[in-house]
Amino acid sequence: SVICEMTKFIGISVMVTGLIYLWFEEKNTRNQKISVLWFLFITTAPLVWWKVRDARVSPEVFGRILAWHPPSFTRLSDGVSVVGQWVSSYMPIVPAGSTYSMFPFGICSLILLLCIAITFRKQVQRQLSKIHFVAFLYVVSYCVVYLVAVSFVDASAEIDFRTFAPLYPFVLFLSVSLVGICIRGAKNSLAWIVLMICLVSYLVLVAVNLMGWLHAAVTVGLGANRWKEKPVVSLVMNQFSEKIIYTNRVKPAFYLFHKLAIGLPAKIEPLSELKNDQHEAEYKVMKEAFEQHKAILVFFPLGHNEEVYFPSESHLVSKLGLRMIRNDGEIRLYSNE
């Protein structure tokens, strides 16, 4: 699921990047049209084939409803915070995992790069190559595609460092190239020293961040042994293996229990932020499953504001007559047996 979250916007972003590049690069009008058509065919053929396959196995080909749900300022600021996380999320002065504390670092990083580019704009204009242009196009295309998706297609899409990870190598390449070009064009020793300090400091922070992310993936993520060793996982896979699993986190539940789980009945659809007309019917089915002792509830208290969309943990416990079987802190198991 992590790979899906990280890559689901790459395809359309690459397509947009290629189309824009070919449109501006090809000088001959006939060659321009031929290149664009070939590129469109090559990039859309796999998508069309896959959607034809989806239409044959499922009545819902896209599974999305177009609706206007623009991201709030807080969510947009998360995108700027991602830049700060790229630079300093594992520095000792910043609490690990704190998103909003990254916002000032993100703003400062963007302003610093902008100031460097403006100061050395002549050298930058002379030495930028096609690969820099393509990398910049991809970064802009990805951001635009992501904003369009969040605003019209998927209101639940997170704006965080995981979903912006596909931008990281390109931003790293562009920022290091920018500073490198400026270093070669620096005409006095003071400017050269300042730029070298910026470059070395940035590369050190990148290295520290990479080590921090790898450590977090091994010790904090769902792939860590601490999750697999939790008693709730053992109980669900052994004692309650025949039960239907209801949960507020379908993807983590599937990963941990190797079994399909059912999400809680949504009052408002997280993808479209529209009222779910099937809420009462879905809730009735869930209630009957618990009354017949066929289901269990696995709840992940991750601190997200989910009560707008789904029934709260306390509501489910009281209305379904559930009792806690096991509480492992980050995951709780309920049953009415």
Can you describe what's shown?
This protein is mainly α and 337 residues long. It is 61% helix and 6% strand. It is built from 14 helices and five strands. The chain has a five-stranded mixed beta sheet, with helices on both faces. The chain starts with a helix and ends with a strand.
Shape: globular
Q: How many strand segments?
A: 5
Radius of gyration: 24 Å
Helix content: 55-70%
Largest sheet: 5 strands, mixed
Distance between the termini: 32 Å
Compile the SSE list and pairings.
Elements: H1 2-7, H2 10-25, H3 29-57, H4 73-88, H5 103-119, H6 121-127, H7 130-153, H8 168-185, H9 189-219, H10 225-228, H11 231-237, E1 244-247, H12 250-257, E2 262-263, H13 279-291, E3 295-299, H14 313-320, E4 323-327, E5 332-335
Parallel strand pairs: 1-2, 1-3
Antiparallel strand pairs: 3-5, 4-5
Brief sketch in words of this structure:
The chain is mainly alpha-helical.
Keywords:
337 residues; mainly alpha; five-stranded mixed β-sheet; 5 strands
